[in-house]
């Protein structure tokens, strides 16, 4: 069987995430804690996620 989605766990709130196939380096947002997470690694449909610091509101000011 092939996996149509990838699975990962939010490193902040430990919510199980299921997402369409994405590649290393892409980002997604946790629906629970609204953190931006970057894909550090993909192995067998399982994502390794790392929280990314984002400060859009202060950008350029
Ligand atoms: Zn989260």
Automatic annotation (TrEMBL):
Top-level lineage group: Bacteria
Protein name (database record): Lysine biosynthesis protein LysW
């Amino acid at each position: 069987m092939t996996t149509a989605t990838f699975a990962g766990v939010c490193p902040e709130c430990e919510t199980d995430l299921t997402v369409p196939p994405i590649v290393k380096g892409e980002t997604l947002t946790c629906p629970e804690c609204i953190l931006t997470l970057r894909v550090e690694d993909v192995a067998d449909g399982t994502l390794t996620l790392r929280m990314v610091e984002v400060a859009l509101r202060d950008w350029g000011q």
